[in-house]
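Progress note, sequence design subtask.
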């Protein structure tokens, strides 16, 4: 670690070495490139900040045991089923802890790109459970899609994505 002369920023030499491959030591250019890199990761995760942070900690801490989850089946509202516009409904998936370890406490289902979450109880290895969310269909007919992902209390995403493709028909 190193304090830069005349700088009020504490620099990690390893980080600076990684940025040196950009071919410049100009502070403004480095900041610009870092902003582009951050925007790229945020775009790739639909501006969900937890995903790149979770990916960073997963990469930097390979000894962390990441939970496993597999999608089993749609319990309610399967792919291609129609829902009337502007209607309340419940979407339920059946999931399984496909790993060898129990899930840690505080796991939840997180709607990617939104702030919607549903708490999910910890599952034992190979245990199967249903996860349900309450939704309201859009008022305009059409095809809509969303995605949910399991997430630990520390923001680490894991397992199969849970997709919600809906056809909202004419009322």
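Output:
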């Amino acid at each position: 670690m190193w304090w830069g002369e005349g700088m009020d920023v504490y620099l990690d030499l390893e980080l600076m070495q990684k940025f040196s491959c950009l071919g410049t030591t100009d502070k403004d250019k480095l900041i610009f490139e870092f902003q582009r890199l951050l925007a790229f990761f945020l775009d790739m995760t639909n501006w969900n900040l937890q995903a790149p942070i979770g990916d960073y900690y997963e990469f930097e801490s390979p000894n962390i045991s990441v939970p496993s989850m597999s999608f089993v089946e749609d319990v309610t509202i399967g792919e291609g089923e129609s829902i009337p516009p502007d209607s309340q409904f419940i979407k339920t998936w059946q999931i399984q802890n496909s790993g060898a370890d129990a899930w840690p406490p505080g796991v939840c289902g997180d709607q990617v790109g939104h702030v919607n979450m549903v708490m999910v109880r910890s599952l034992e290895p190979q245990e199967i459970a249903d996860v349900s969310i309450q939704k309201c269909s859009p008022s305009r007919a059409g095809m809509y899609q969303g995605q949910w992902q399991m997430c630990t209390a520390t923001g680490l995403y894991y397992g199969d994505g849970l997709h919600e493709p809906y056809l909202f028909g004419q009322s």
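The radius of gyration is 21 Å. Work on this subtask will continue into the next period as scheduled.
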